[in-house]
Amino acid sequence: MTPPRLSPLLRQFDFAHRRLADRMAGPVMDSGDGTDTEVGPMTDEEYFWEPVPDCWSVRRRAEGPGPRATLLAGTGDWGRDAAAYPHPWPPPFTTIAWRLSHLSEMLTLRADHTAGTRALTRSDYAAAGDAASALAAFDAGATAWRRALLSVDDAALDTVGYCTYPHGSDAEEPFIDIAWWVNQELLHHGAEIALLRDLYRSRQR
Asked: How many CB atoms neighbour CB 81 within 10 A?
């Protein structure tokens, strides 16, 4: 059974996941008041759209990193713009491709470090080179994280370092705080992606 303290976080995660998935894929999404609003599926052009100069994005590895990036994170033919610490300041503006890849990678890796091999790193994650693959990767990451949440018991929620994800503060925080944080990542990056979809639809042609 799901620990009672985890239940509201799980419900919030499910809502945020479904709302973002529908917002990106269509054909309808929850407008926020329970009614359906028509929305078209995200295209490759929109996925890679750079609304301002010098964006960070997902790029073909053969082309190398973008402006102010020093590497393309991940494995495979595509990678996500990145740089070693200290990161560029001010932070580069990022495309839907970058934000969605970051979100999907985080869900996949945290799931693995909670209820999987506890071995995956960013170097193992393959960024998607098209919108359809990116949506599938997002759903796969969200499904894996939900399964990881369902695997924990009440004692695990208070265990510091229960999730061994190496790219965050997981080693210093109880797992229930990590579950809360993942929801915040999903909510705020989901809002960013939704706004970029609105801007793309309304851009001057």
From this structure: 26
Task: Give the contacts of 102 (CB within 8 A, at least 6 positions apart).
Answer: 80, 94, 189
Is 170 among the domain residues?
yes
Tell me the residue type at 43: T
Phi, psi of 120 (to 5 degrees): -65, 145
Picking from 164, 162, 205, 167, the residue whose alpha carbon sits closest to that of residue 185 is 167
pTM over 0.85: yes
Q: What is the Cα–Cα distance from 44 to 66, expressed in whole angstroms?
A: 18
- Listing from the earlier edge strand, what are the strands of the sheet with 71-73? 58-60, 78-82, 71-73
pLDDT in tens, 112-166: 999 999 999 999 999 999 999 999 999 999 999 999 999 999 999 999 999 999 9
Helix (H) or strand (E) holding 82: strand 78-82
Decide if 16 is inside a domain: yes
Within-domain flag for 133: yes
For residue 168, what are the domain limits? 7-202
Buried b (16+ CB within 10 A) or exposed e, 49-66: bbeeeebbbbbeeeeebb
What's the number of domains the chain is made of? 1
pLDDT of residue 179 exceeding 90? yes
pLDDT in tens, 90-100: 999 999 999 99
Token pair belonging to 36:
């359906």
Q: What is the pLDDT of residue 30?
A: 80
